[in-house]
């Protein structure tokens, strides 16, 4: 499929989704959100890790498109937020690992896009934040909720109330970003993490992701029940048989995802 504002590239089992509207610092307009949704939907079972990044030199994504938003009515704003929520929920619901490679400004909707990924690596020049209150609105693509879950209420409130931009080092300090890399090494780092993931059983990774996600908002007893079920369900899969057989035969496992 031909896209206007994004690129979706496949390198073996690793797909890279690049938000690519550098003239507007990759701001998310309606079309871009629709293309993100379509791209995520198009991923087949041959893709086992997704990296999300920004095109050009300056930005991951500088937010929702302010020029497009400026004159929205309340009901149009509802629809716009619903589109963003749908696209990011779809991204979040993927069973494969998703890695945000934050290569520059990740503000507003850009920070929210990164937060919808499993984890975030950032370049030294990245700046993150939710500056929406400075525009007289609040984050509208899940930021108030996902940031709170990622860094806790007080930090989330501080960032949302001040609208402050934080650098990559600060983002790492508060647990928003996992690692800070030199700009030129960011994608290579993401790909090397993807390569480590690809050595493991795809069914197990998908199950681990689901159990972590679903368990996070439950009490420990209920959450551990999910883990127990997930653990048991993998027994009898080809991946479980192969993984354990390979260990006992002292050879690398060859997983099929079945
Ligand atoms: N929407 C639309 N256009 C944007 C944009 C955005 N979010 N961010 C940047 N641009 C455009 C600029 O208007 C400019 O376009 P022109 O060249 O046509 O004037 C171009 O991208 C380059 O931007 P700047 O000249 O501003 O670049 P800079 O280096 O001086 O500043 C910046 C960079 C600090 C990121 C600044 O562009 C900025 O503050 N952008 C807006 C950030 C923001 O407020 N994001 C939140 C949006 S609201 C939101 O996301 C709501 C939600 O949760 C759903």
From TrEMBL:
Q: Which family does it belong to?
A: Belongs to the enoyl-CoA hydratase/isomerase family.
Q: What Gene Ontology molecular-function terms does this entry list?
A: hydro-lyase activity
Recorded superkingdom: Bacteria
Q: What is this protein called?
A: 3-hydroxybutyryl-CoA dehydratase
PANTHER family named among the record's database cross-references: ENOYL-COA HYDRATASE, MITOCHONDRIAL (PTHR11941:SF54), ENOYL-COA HYDRATASE-RELATED (PTHR11941)
SUPFAM superfamilies, per the entry: ClpP/crotonase (SSF52096)
This protein's species is Myxococcus stipitatus (strain DSM 14675 / JCM 12634 / Mx s8)
Listed A to Z, the keywords are: Lyase
InterPro entries under this entry? ClpP/crotonase-like_dom_sf, Enoyl-CoA_hyd/isom_CS, Enoyl-CoA_hydra/iso, Enoyl-CoA_hydra_C
Q: Name one GO biological process term.
A: fatty acid beta-oxidation
């Amino acid at each position: 499929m031909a896209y206007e504002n994004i690129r979706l590239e496949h390198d073996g089992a690793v797909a890279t989704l690049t938000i690519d509207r550098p003239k507007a610092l990759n701001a998310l307009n309606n079309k871009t959100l629709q293309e993100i949704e379509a791209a995520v939907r198009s991923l087949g079972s041959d893709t086992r890790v997704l990296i999300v990044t920004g095109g050009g030199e300056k930005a991951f994504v500088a937010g929702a498109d302010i020029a497009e938003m400026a004159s929205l009515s309340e009901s149009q704003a509802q629809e716009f937020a619903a589109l963003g929520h749908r696209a990011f929920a779809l991204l979040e619901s993927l069973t494969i690992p998703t890695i945000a490679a934050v290569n520059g400004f990740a503000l507003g909707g850009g920070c929210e896009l990164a937060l919808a990924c499993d984890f975030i690596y950032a370049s030294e020049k990245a700046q993150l934040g939710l500056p929406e209150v400075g525009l007289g609105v609040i984050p509208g693509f899940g930021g108030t909720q996902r940031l709170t879950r990622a860094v806790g209420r007080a930090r989330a409130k501080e960032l949302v109330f001040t609208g402050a931009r934080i650098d990559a080092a600060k983002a790492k300090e508060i647990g928003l970003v996992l690692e800070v890399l030199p700009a030129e090494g960011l994608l290579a780092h993401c790909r090397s993490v993807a390569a480590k993931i690809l050595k493991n059983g795809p069914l197990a990774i998908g199950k681990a992701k689901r159990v972590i996600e679903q368990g996070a908002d439950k009490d420990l007893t209920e959450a551990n029940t999910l883990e127990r079920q997930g653990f048991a369900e993998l027994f009898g899969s080809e991946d479980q048989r192969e993984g354990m057989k390979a260990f006992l035969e002292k050879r690398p496992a060859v997983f099929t995802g079945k």
